């Protein structure tokens, strides 16, 4: 089945809003009365249109498994047309939408070809307000602006700038505030450092009574603190945040408890400790290393010292991961294997989502999954090495919460860069070239 969350960045949140977001009852009643007088659709009618839109998409693409990049482009074009038609049928002026109306319709706007620019302009005007409403508008405008581009350098610069918005501290705990902590965490250090005072001031928001949406962003928050604050301060904040999550986990049950326990692992990881970039690569236990021809070129990441190593964390079910394969292949062609090793890092997933074969279930059968992964590599023309690690692909030491996720190791085996996107060729080459230009440290006693 097509995972709709691999469409523009706003779509994952849009699906949640469309399916379950409740319009505030008092606001809905007033808005409904005003809308009826003005001959406009009510908030409930707008929400119903969005729910119908997604229901039709899910039905239409129910049988589409792991679309190719070409199919994905065609699908996005088709969806944009449906979004445009839906908005036109509602008869709303997107430039005049209220905050509540914009929240409800944002999923449609995010995929529209005609409405997005007008909504971004409206949000940017509202973003000038020095309050929480202004911050929310600024965050939404930024997400819409970069929805089709992904989180590249320009997006990171915009996200980091939002930390300085006067309304940001008040928005901590809201969806937009928590989202910013996660997305800005991979921005370059020089963009984060100017916001040290803000980041230190919001530490008190992380307590055992904090909402799950905020605690889920703990890893991103601590990476920001590590980048902006002295180590003694960032360590103290990490201890505070970790205590809050552990306290919350002690009283939680079911899925929430499992999620909180995963957070504890992440908060104890190298990224959250501020010991990732510039430090030796965290342990990666490679249980299976292979090329598409079935050969094993090396057994441990430590064997690769002296080379620049590109770690591309991925999984067969991840559409954006597979969609970036052509760019990774070009990268493999560009650099000789004698100086640069590219490693697709994954872990056992209990299945292999083939694109050219039927999906294969492999739960509790590691050998079967490895054989199927090798077939996947051969089918998809993978020209680089793939390693399955004992550590989960959402590796807590690297602070990974979404894939694809790329880390670059220098020739001494130290982490040079993290959070790169494999399809961002310029950033990838810049990181690799910088590492190639660094001399290898002499061996101890040499």
Quick structural summary:
The chain is α/β, with parallel strands linked by helices.
Question: Explain this structure to me?
Answer:
The chain is globular and about 70 Å long. α3 (43-60) runs parallel beside α5 (99-111), α7 runs antiparallel to α8 and α14 (218-228) runs antiparallel to α15. It has three domains: 1-126, no CATH class; 151-275; 286-436, Glutaredoxin. It is built from 21 helices and eight strands. A hairpin with a 7-residue loop joins β4 and β5. The protein has helices at residues 10-20, 25-38, 43-60, 69-90, 99-111, 116-126, 132-145, 153-162, 168-171, 175-184, 189-192, 196-201, 212-215, 218-228, 231-250, 254-267, 270-273, 319-323, 325-334, 366-379, 425-436; strands spanning 286-290, 308-313, 340-346, 351-352, 360-361, 385-389, 405-409, 415-420. It has a six-stranded mixed β-sheet with strand order 1-6-3-2-7-8, covered by helices on one side. The chain has a two-stranded antiparallel ribbon with strand order 4-5. It has 446 residues and is α/β, with parallel strands linked by helices.
Write the layout of secondary structure elements.
Layout (H helix, E strand, L loop, with lengths): L9 H11 L4 H14 L4 H18 L8 H22 L8 H13 L4 H11 L5 H14 L7 H10 L5 H4 L3 H10 L4 H4 L3 H6 L10 H4 L2 H11 L2 H20 L3 H14 L2 H4 L12 E5 L17 E6 L5 H5 L1 H10 L5 E7 L4 E2 L7 E2 L4 H14 L5 E5 L15 E5 L5 E6 L4 H12 L10
Parallel strand pairs: 2-3, 3-6
Antiparallel strand pairs: 1-6, 2-7, 4-5, 7-8
Helix pairs in contact: 1-5, 3-4, 3-5, 6-7, 7-8, 10-14, 14-15, 15-16
């Amino acid at each position: 089945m097509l995972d709709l969350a691999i469409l523009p960045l706003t779509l994952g949140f849009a699906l949640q809003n469309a399916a379950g977001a409740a319009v505030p009852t008092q606001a809905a009643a007033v808005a409904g009365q005003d809308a009826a007088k003005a001959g406009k659709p009510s908030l409930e009618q707008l929400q119903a249109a969005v729910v119908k839109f997604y229901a039709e998409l899910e039905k239409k693409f129910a049988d589409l498994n792991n679309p190719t990049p070409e199919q994905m482009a065609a699908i996005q074009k088709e969806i944009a047309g449906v979004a445009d038609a839906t908005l036109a049928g509602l008869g709303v002026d997107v430039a005049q939408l209220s905050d509540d109306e914009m929240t409800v319709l944002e999923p449609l706007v995010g995929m529209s070809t005609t409405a997005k620019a007008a909504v971004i302009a409206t949000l940017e005007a509202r973003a000038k307000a020095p309050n929480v409403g202004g911050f929310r508008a600024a965050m939404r405008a930024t997400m819409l602006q970069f929805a089709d581009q992904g989180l590249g350098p320009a997006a990171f610069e915009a996200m980091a700038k939002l930390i300085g918005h006067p309304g940001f501290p008040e928005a901590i705990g809201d969806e937009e505030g928590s989202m910013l902590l996660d997305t800005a965490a991979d921005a370059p250090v020089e963009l984060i450092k100017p916001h040290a005072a803000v980041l230190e001031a919001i530490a008190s928001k992380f307590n055992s009574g904090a909402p799950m949406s905020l605690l889920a962003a703990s890893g991103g928050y601590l990476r920001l603190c590590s980048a902006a604050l002295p180590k003694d301060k960032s360590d103290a904040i990490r201890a505070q945040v970790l205590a809050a999550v552990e306290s919350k986990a002690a009283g939680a049950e079911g899925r929430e408890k499992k999620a909180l326990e995963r957070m504890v692992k992440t908060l104890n990881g190298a990224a959250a400790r501020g010991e990732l970039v510039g430090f030796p690569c965290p342990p990666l236990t490679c249980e299976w290393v292979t090329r598409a021809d079935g050969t094993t070129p090396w057994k441990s990441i430590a064997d690769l010292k002296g080379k620049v190593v590109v770690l591309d964390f991925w999984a067969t079910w991840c559409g954006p991961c597979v969609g970036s394969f052509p760019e990774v292949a070009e990268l493999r062609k560009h650099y000789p294997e004698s100086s640069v090793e590219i490693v697709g890092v994954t872990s056992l997933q209990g299945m292999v989502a083939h694109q050219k074969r039927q999906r294969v279930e492999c739960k509790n059968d590691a050998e079967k999954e490895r054989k199927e992964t090798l077939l996947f590599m051969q089918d998809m023309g993978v020209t680089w090495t793939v390693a399955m690690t004992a550590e989960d692909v959402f590796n807590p030491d690297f602070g990974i919460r979404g894939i694809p996720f790329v880390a670059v190791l220098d020739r001494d085996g130290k982490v040079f860069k993290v959070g790169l996107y494999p399809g961002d060729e310029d950033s990838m080459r810049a990181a690799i070239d910088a590492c190639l230009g660094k001399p290898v440290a002499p061996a101890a006693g040499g």
